[in-house]
UniProtKB/TrEMBL annotation:
PANTHER family: CYSTEINE DESULFURASE (PTHR11601:SF34), CYSTEINE DESULFURYLASE FAMILY MEMBER (PTHR11601). It is an enzyme of class 2 (transferase). Its EC number is 2.8.1.7. The lineage of its organism: Bacteria, Bacillati, Actinomycetota, Actinomycetes, Micrococcales. Keywords: Iron, Iron-sulfur, Metal-binding, Pyridoxal phosphate, Transferase. Belongs to the class-V pyridoxal-phosphate-dependent aminotransferase family. NifS/IscS subfamily. It comes from Cellulomonas flavigena (strain ATCC 482 / DSM 20109 / BCRC 11376 / JCM 18109 / NBRC 3775 / NCIMB 8073 / NRS 134). It catalyses: (sulfur carrier)-H + L-cysteine = (sulfur carrier)-SH + L-alanine. This is Cysteine desulfurase. It holds the Pfam family Aminotran_5.
Length: 371
């Protein structure tokens, strides 16, 4: 498996923690009897470990059942908390679709508008343009830490410093970065995805003290995550993050070297191909390239027959036959896109064999359609 973006295999230690927590943390942590108190202790331990691993305080952490729900809820809550300042939302052109949809929802409801900041050919926003777009009437700005489709890192620190001076909060999607690279102090609000670092599906929202939020959903005992989360899921996510953080330096070196191999060999051995994403300022485990004349889905299916699970940034949804908005915003080739997101324990031999097989696979797909 060479593409685990957002849905990595559950880390063995996380699996063990999950199974143990099914016995020890099954009760509702909001209740008062002994089993519930035990579950509450496990949940508090999970929140503390997640906070430590993501550079926050435990009281800044909210847990949400999925990354998408966390993104939606965080943006809606911050925008509502800032409604007196305005209803406009500034968003980078290559943010994930969930944030573009949420930004449009927030802006339209508040009679504001979405201000989209374009990117360079590597998929990186210009920090000055991002700050300039966040003028009067801006409720919140949104910028990913890194793009999960092409791997390019964004100038989060520079943007954050300028926006903080202007009083505009910055929501940073760290879904593709957390557990893989150092996040620094990214964002006034950070939203992470446990499924990406080897945990079960869980969204983690970290909100810096002083950021105004106001929920726009019905009142619940758990203000920011109505109904709460499953304690075993939270504990498994925390254990997986601890494991990922402990192995991060070695995993970075291992995967970065293999990504360099893929970038070099694909460019040299596959005709009419474009390798995209920043060659240096990037995530260590993500590489994307596009092949002229063919559809990405056809290459994905052909590679699957060879035993390689890969993704495609141009993959269509069931409702819209559209190319990747990320590649389109970059001005990159959108045809025949293939994305690799390597797991920490990826076998180097598998990556080299992938590079051996790829040229013939692309040639076969092209020949089948007479390209």
């Amino acid at each position: 498996m060479l593409d685990v973006a957002g849905h990595a295999r559950l880390h063995p230690a996380a699996r063990t923690a999950f199974l143990e927590a099914l016995d020890q943390g099954w009760a509702d942590p909001r209740r008062l009897f002994a089993e519930a108190r035990r579950a509450r202790l496990l949940l508090d331990d999970a929140r503390e470990a997640l906070a430590s691993g993501l550079g926050a305080r435990p009281d800044e952490v909210d847990l949400v059942p999925s990354h998408t729900l966390a993104l939606h809820g965080a943006l809606r809550a911050v925008a509502r908390g800032r409604r007196r300042a305005g209803s406009d939302v500034v968003v980078g052109a290559v943010e994930r679709a969930a944030l573009h949809h949420a930004a449009h929802f927030v802006a339209v409801r508040g009679e504001g508008r979405v201000r989209t900041v374009e990117v360079d050919p590597h998929g990186r926003v210009d920090a000055g343009a991002m700050v300039a777009a966040a003028g009067p009437g801006t409720a919140v700005a949104v910028l990913q830490h890194a793009n999960g489709e092409v791997g390019t890192l964004q100038p989060v620190g520079e943007v954050q410093d300028a926006l903080r001076a202007a009083g505009v909060p910055l929501l940073v999607d760290v879904g593709a970065s957390a557990g893989h690279v150092d996040l620094g102090g990214a964002g006034d609000v950070r939203v992470a995805d446990a499924g990406d670092w080897g945990g079960p599906p869980l969204g983690v929202v970290l909100t810096r003290a002083g950021v105004r939020r106001s929920p726009d959903w019905p009142e619940d005992d758990d203000r920011w995550s109505p109904g709460g989360v499953h304690v075993p899921v939270a504990l498994a996510a925390a254990v997986a993050l601890q494991e990922a953080s402990a192995a991060r330096e070695a995993a970075d070196a291992h995967r970065r070297a293999l990504v360099d191999v893929v970038r070099r060999r694909v460019a040299a051995e596959v005709p009419d191909v474009q390798v995209v994403g920043h060659p240096v300022e990037r995530l260590p485990h993500v590489v994307t390239f596009s092949c002229l004349y063919v559809e990405g889905e056809a290459i994905v299916e052909r590679l699957d027959r060879e035993g390689f699970g890969v993704g495609s940034g141009s993959a269509c949804t069931s409702s819209a036959l559209e190319p990747s908005h990320v590649l389109a915003a970059m001005g990159a080739l959108t045809q025949g896109n293939v994305r690799l997101s390597l797991p920490p324990d990826v076998d180097a031999a598998d990556v080299h064999r992938f590079c051996d097989v790829l040229p013939r696979a692309v040639a076969d797909v092209r020949a089948a359609i007479g390209a």
